[in-house]
Amino acid sequence: MIDEPTLNQLAHYFLNINKVSTYYVPFLSGFLSIYIVYVHIATDQGEKWWKALIVPLFAIYFGMMVGSLFGVFLNGKADPWAYWTSRSLSKQFQIIFSPFAGGKVLYGGFLGMILGIFLSSLTLYQKRWKKAFARSLDAFSIATPLLFMFNRVGCIFYGCCYGKISSWGINIPPAHQSYEEYVDKGLIIQGDVLHLIPTQMISLWANFVIFLFLFLLYRQRRETLPRFFYFWTYTVSYGLFRFIIEFLRADRRDFFLGLSTSQWIPLILFIPATLFFVRIAKGK
Asked: For 186-224, what is each residue's pLDDT tens digit?
């Protein structure tokens, strides 16, 4: 039987993590859940099982890579380029390519998944890539809320993505990272009672509701809806929620005009989403 120190050393060597903590259990559960749901939907639509197993590999890994880059350059750092250049080449490599390097941005991960699905469609389907891309993107859009849901469970354990101080918030123990950051900012002193808006828990349930709605809609309508319908429905529903919840978070990462990257992205995507649904409403 492998003892815990040895297990931690192996994990650090292969995965760039300092310890096997409770953060990575929901993290891995999220990837497993999105894999299962995607394969179920893809094979349900007549996809070959081996192709259904390969596409998520592209999507998940490119999602982690782009999510890491968003975390470095588009997440409100005062001087992201100085932060990046101060890291060694090996550290830069770890930040981008390690699945368990911290600081990933969920929205960046979602955009990276789109890139991964696009590349896998070109590789596996060649001349039929457009149809395959639309089918895979819709399937992933149904499954993605589960990934985000489990990710927020990890945020609860780890102490990131926390909310503002509120009388109706949950009690935060002194050992929690969010408590320590409030102390470091001078907003409270060690020993104070701290109640924060449970933004992680709110996000968890919001993503579960979005997944349930999309999955049940798929079970009812299956392929009767137009291509990209599930993608744009997810984009609008999660984007609207994310835009609002950002105002309740204390770990603000203002990017431009007082809004975070995670608020600007849904604002930009709202334009093509509106055009898509207007086109459907006109019967085109």
From this structure: 778 887 888 888 898 999 999 999 999 999 999 988 767
Among 242, 281, 275, smallest CA distance to 148 is for 242
Q: Can you read off the two tokens belonging to residue 277?
A: 């649904």
**What range does the domain containing 176 cover?**
164-197
Per DSSP, helices labelled H in the chain are 4-15, 24-44, 49-73, 80-85, 89-97, 106-125, 129-158, 177-184, 199-221, 229-245, 261-281
Cβ(214)–Cβ(145) under 8 Å? Answer: yes
CA 257 to CA 254: how far, in whole Å?
8
Residue 276 lies in a domain: no
- Domain shared by 35 and 87, yes or no: yes
Domain-embedded: residue 184: yes
Contact predicate 108/66, CB 8 Å: yes
241 token code pair: 């929620």
Do 91 and 52 fall into the same domain? yes
Residue 192 and residue 95 in one domain: no
Tokens at 57, concatenated: 């590999």
85 and 206 both lie in a single domain = yes
Task: Retrieve residue 117's tokens.
Answer: 């699905």
Neighbours of 208 (CB within 10 A): 16
Q: How confident is the model at residue 117 (pLDDT cuts 50, 70, 90)?
A: very high
Work out how many domains the chain is built from and give that number: 2
Question: Is 228 part of a structural domain of the chain?
Answer: no
Q: How confident is the model at residue 2 (pLDDT cuts 50, 70, 90)?
A: very low
Give the integer Cα–Cα distance in Å for 7 and 267: 44
| 29-38, 49-58, 236-245, 254-263: least confidently modelled range | 254-263
* Beta bridge pairs of residue 259: 256
